[in-house]
Amino acid sequence: MKVSVILPVYNAESYLAECLDSLLAQTMPDFEILAINDGSADKSGEILNAYAGKDARVKVRHFNQNYGEPRAVQHAWREAQGEYLARMDNDDICLPERFARQTDYLDAHSGIAVLGSNMEIFGATQGNTEVPLSDADIKANFVIARANILNPTAMWRRAWFAEKGIFYGDLKNVSDYKLWVDCMLAGGAFANLPSVFVKYRIHSEQATKDVKASNDGVQLITEKLVGQLFPQLAAHQSAALAAICHGQGSRSLTHNTLMQAFEAHSLVKNDTGSRFGENRNRALAYIARCVDIWQQAIAQGKKK
Description:
The model has no long low-confidence stretch (mean pLDDT about 95). The chain is α/β, with parallel strands linked by helices. It folds into two domains: about 5-200, Spore Coat Polysaccharide Biosynthesis Protein SpsA, Chain A (Alpha-Beta Complex); about 210-304, no CATH class. The protein has helices spanning about 15-25, 45-55, 70-80, 100-110, 135-140, 160-165, 175-185, 210-230, 235-245, 255-270, 280-304; strands spanning about 5-10, 30-40, 60-65, 85, 95, 115-125, 125-130, 155, 190-200. The longest helix has 24 residues, at about 280-304.
């Protein structure tokens, strides 16, 4: 088995058939779809059963209640038989060449643990993503917890993650970010293909994200990352620096946290030696930009 597709499903009857059709239309046929019906209250389960009855590659498991995306992903991962694991969201569309192009790349680049791509955003919002392509630039973007590996496009080596003991976590909304950071810290390498292989749907029926849970989870992961990138920092300094890297616009920070972050930045701004293959200058530039934004915000507040 070449690819196991991990497909969590929850109340997706409006879009699920289109998602499944796009997967089954892949030009590379050697894959299984591990669809986990996470306690859906609509007709998602019926749709999954109908597809499983028509195509043996669709393998369905039904949860008797809604446990959340992390548990659904974990369950599918444990059952997966593929050399590579691929993520798919239940309301998105896979372009026909995705699996062929991604498996060809991974077959030819044995040093890459995780491969992503760009996405076309459609529906209520439209546009295309522009993710960095190289391992070094992807790792630099982990510092700001965005524009690195886009979860719906990800494909990764099952055996490599098993060897390193890395598995999907329990953090709500952000377990994918934790997975990639853990991979980086374990010595894994990343790449993105410039092509669009997934159409990412924006619509009113999407589940509302728990912003607090997302912020809390990203904070924990980024603290760990910053602490590893800059071991000279004390724990409270790593926490403060992490907070300013992903906190703009989504939450308020205390004056004490900001002062600790500025102090931490003064200690790391000249630390240009890469530790995990990251583009260190790019990461430091991101941090400096965040510091500048918060310092300007403080200055503006004092003028009022």
